[in-house]
Amino acid sequence: METFRALVEQSISSLNSSLKLYDLEYQTGSLLLRVYIINPETLTAEIGDCVKVDHALTLPLQESWVPDGITLEVSSPGIFRSLKTDWHFSMSINRRVKLRLMKPLLAIRGKTEGKFFELIGTLKNFNAGKLSLELEHPRLEVEEIFVDKENIQIAHWEPNLDQLDSTNLLK
Q: Which of 39, 131, 145, 150 is most buried, by CB atoms within 10 Å?
């Protein structure tokens, strides 16, 4: 997969645009390979960007190790985008996110009872593998907690759809 990642990054950089590879997704045994791209300035990619990247990848894919029958899908990471890398977390400061933890937070700072595997809140800071999250949880009496990135199983944007309209999806 790292060889393919390098191929995709090289193809994107050949376009002389501000687009970057956001993520790759392939499940062993499937016939679908997803390439997520992003313009770091706008935090999205337009359909024209996806078409350009798809075309830029056509010849390299035909010449590479990618087996016949694989379908390539190029898209924006979307409004519920996954957060995996330090870069993803850094770009998501002041965004509403949802975290699923591998180990629960027990009695956060002694102010509440219970185990917390899932947290929703606003990502306030990310530095050296630790993030601070301003919580949205009615049972918690604390406003902000700190989580080690290594304890995160799944993280993604969690926009409040009740407050969104087409003009502020990514603001």
A: 131
